[in-house]
Amino acid sequence: MAITDLPTFVRADGPDKVTGSGRYTADMTLTGMLAAKFRYAGVSHARITKLDVSAAKAIPGVFAVITADDVPDVRYSYGIADRTLFAKGVVRYDGEVLAAVAAISPEVAQRAVDAIVVEYDELPIVTDLEAAVADDSPLVHDDLDGYAITGDTPHHGNVGTHSSIEMGDPDAAMAAAHTVVSSRFVADASHAVPIEPRAVIAQWEGDKVTIWTSTQVPFDARNGVCETLEMPTTKVRVIVPHVGGGFGGKCGPHYEPHIAALARAAKRPCKLVFSRWEEFTAPDRRREGMIVDVTTGLDAEGNIVARTGELLLDNGAYMADSSFFAQAAAMHVAGPYTIPNVRIDAQLVYTNHQPSGSVRAPTAPQGCWAVESHTDELAAAIGMDPLDFRRRNIVRTGDVGPTGQTYEEIGLDRCLDMAAESAGWGTTELPDDEAFGISIGWWPSFHMPAGAYMKMHADGKVQVITGANECGTGSVMTLRMLAADELGLDQTDVELVYQDTAAAPDGPGASGSMTLFNHGRAVEKAAKEIAGQLRELAATKLEASAADIVLADGAASVAGTPTKSVPIVELAEAAAEGELLLGSGSTDELEWPEIKGSSCLGEQGFSSFMAPQFICHVARVRLDKDTGVARVLEVHAVHDSGTILNPVAAHGQVEGGILMGIGQALTEGTQYDETGSQRNAALLEYKLQTIADAPEIHTQFVEIHTPNAGPKGAKGLAEAPNVPTAGAISNAIAALIGRPVRQLPMTAERVWSTIAEEVTA
Amino acid sequence: MSTDINAIELTVNGVPYPVAIDTSRNLSGVLRNEIGLTGTKEGCDDCECGACMVLLDGQPINSCSYLAVQAQGREITTVEGLADGDELHPLQRNILATGGVQCGFCTPGMLMSAQALLDRNPDPSLEDIKIGLSGNLCRCTGYARILAAVDATAVELRGTSDS
Amino acid sequence: MSFAVATSLDDALAAMAAGARPIAGGTDLVVGSRQGKGALPDAIIAIDRLPELAAIEVGDDVTRIGAGVTHATLMTDATVVDQFSSIADAAALVGSPATRNVGTLGGNVMNGSPAMDTGAPLVVLGAEAELRSVDATRSVSLDELWTGPGSTSANADELCTALLIPNRPAASGSAYVRLEYRRAMEIAVVGAAAAVTLDGDTVSTVRVALTAVAPTILEVTGLDAVVGSTIDDAAVAAATAASEQATPISDLRASDAYRRHTIGVMARRAVDAAARRAMGETIAVPVNRALGVGAVA
After folding, report:
1. Which CATH number covers residue C104?
2. What is the pTM of this model?
3. Between chains, do C44 and B23 touch, taking CB under 8 Å as contact?
4. Does residue C7 belong to the interface with chain B, where contact is any CB pair within 8 Å?
5. For chain C, how far is it from start to end, CA to CA, in angstroms?
């Protein structure tokens, strides 16, 4: 479908964004506002022997310098409470915050940062994953058990979480297999890289603080402030101006507590705006590096009979929201295949790198790249076409997956068939330097509590007050369509009040592809409440039963008798003089699908996939074999994300996810030196794809009914497009050079080295 | 010849702004902070993202890495100068219609590059558009809808000028 | 910091004699200071409005390209595109439209970076730099000008005012190709320029220079041996010599081994494209995008 053929989507925030009048956090100024800057550790592992801020405080124009001594002594984080706002005693990565400065200008603040004196006793630096899990490794945290640990978080040494999937008897099945293939794949870390570097402003009024921040999840930001500064929920208000992209990188609390504490100390509003270098090096959000060892056994017909895997994931120095990563990665390496005998062990390993955290489908692109590259090796080992091999082994409706979950209605088979057909798999003649590669993937939908309020005013216009957070996807904008649909109004009759924790009920914000799935369900419920009130009012007025009232096209009518009708605005006008039209909704809890036969360790919510989304991507790649430079010419993407409510936004998610996937496949890898510092924390050296690199993207959706889906059968969509692209590109490159490139990103040099290995082999 | 210029005048979107600034200040900072036009964004420190793109005498520059004093006597155009009053510029209208705006942070710079491209080349091929916008990184859209919007605008403007 | 706009060349030279640093587009200077690589100088003299630096003048024997000519002009100017195609190839690959719009040939040359894109083309075309001070004007070979990464032999009061390039003989062509990991916004990992003159089907002269594989732009030596050979043989010989003579480093962009390999590939492709142009074939600027070398088109 041509881009211009899609139905109209009115982006309420659009005019603001194209005229430059829209305010992002960094665009805001408050009277008396000071510039905030951080002093970072600058070393990856050391004991602090001296931290002296007196010279910094003495600089004219400096209003406050704060350290761990100036905030409550609270250790926090998800899973393992291993961190403090400011480094305390030991620093564990080079971007860890030692101190914050508030000064009259950014220049003065920087001078004060430079005047802070810190001295260290250096500690051994842990960067190598395999060495880190050895018994004799130095420890990143020497007393994990001294921290508060919640949930099912098995841990020891440098292992923060250990998770396993087990089903059947993989050892016996492997021993009896006709063909066994073992593969190793190593993925570098990568970064979310929203184009807006993060910014935070805090202002106190009495004992209350208001924080403007570029977060994806305002309630997490608020809760983080409350926890670390020991404040009641009601005293902290988080407001989110326009957000310039997140991709997971802005989930969770980040620097809101630091700037709140700084503003309190300085007795002035304070504003932090990150440079690109800081955006790369400091936050606890980085796509984790991963080592995947996977072995699969096939029977004589090419059916997968067993799979074992061992995974090591680089957690970095602290737990961000990463405690579930081991289990998620294990699921992705098991893959959406019918495998009766499985054992996957995954360990999330502490190192002295920047912490890892949710970046768009955490663990999935790397895990999928590894297992899908491995899948093509399996097909090659038995001389089967990669498409046919997948057709034989994927999960279909009614099948049992690798953790014993029975999949109700799913569309993976159709994704595979449609993507292959779109690309012309097996029929399109390609030049010698081009090939197709295919990859499948999956990603769950998540239930989280979310609420919504709604008001209908005397003029018939509606305000939706939602905790959803618009970081660009358009899914918050889609909430208008849901409300309008329930109320028989046009989407432009609905205005959104959003991104303010003091106004809206809580919710997961823009995380986990959850906006429509959870906030949408809450909005639907709130709208139904007002719709019910309107039906009662109309029923009285039209002398009919409320059950027979239909709300459509701005009017309430009696079903079957369209002449008996009243404009909704008249009902609203009347209600404004009597009982107000108010609605509220909270998501009903959804049941996680049952799993059978699998004994799991490190249970973090990823053993079964709720309302799973399935994906198939086929990439057409051209390779310059002399240099190893690959270029993606086409991607054919087919997604089962349930009902597509907003096609323009949905296509946009797929297209953006694919470009990010191409970057991660070819040019986006975070490089470290031997001291654990990033070497390429700049956009010239960490290369996003440009418009000149963008391929043709052909997207289709398989819209099927999925049990437990969100509003009108919609599932999530924001993360899934990022999952299989690298795998498809890998398989196209492997088709051209005869073997997979075993490191991600598959840089030109790595492709060239892989070709060279083949020549020498 | 003068030294130590502090009080200067910058003409932005046709409006002269007297400003007193340190000579080392970059143009994007002065536009955003002294002049109060925050449509121009800052996404990196080194001409690598294009969010700060403005036009100087009609040509695109990265205003983050351009000395404000060097823009004296030249016409500066920012995203705030694109629309004709309340009437959106066709580029603005089309990038909304195609879905080429998501988070919107790259949008102002992208629009300025597109405007410069269409001024220079009213009949660009898709490859011309890609090269013309290649200094503007977008993380959200995958570029397809931005490309379509600029292409549609070129067609639209050619139709206007032909009639 | 003091800042002044030069209204004449003499004005600019006087300011430099008094210690000011010249600024044209400011891309290197301002970006460098923002990245903390070096503070802005105490005094800056803007030379971006001097018409005498922005001209391209074709003389009887030599073409004079003003130091203030921008990359955007170099990649579209008919003389440069037809006669000195490799310079146009290189200019078209610099940064983005915005950097090409403000960045100048003189700025690129005087930056002295071994990764500068216009350097290798200028070397194979036999260019000299014209340096002027209040007192004198002199021409220096580029070999003499570039003394190391980021350093030149120009005196602090000398302004590069032009690049002087001998006009090309008949049946000649030049080309610049660069390894690119993506199709825009790149910096040279390696690059190669070639200038070739043909005598019928055989090569009568060939010069090759290399980007980012030595402390300065490196001209390949010993290519006299290929005179009289076919284009293919010359391209292969140039590739071998380039890989042998390169002394690349390993850094975050590439290992030395990969650079040594790919510089040969670039040299071969540059000679091939230059020879095809010498034969009269029109290959659009830049060669990278026209033929799909570097980042595959």
Report:
1. 3.30.465.10
2. 0.97
3. yes
4. yes
5. 45
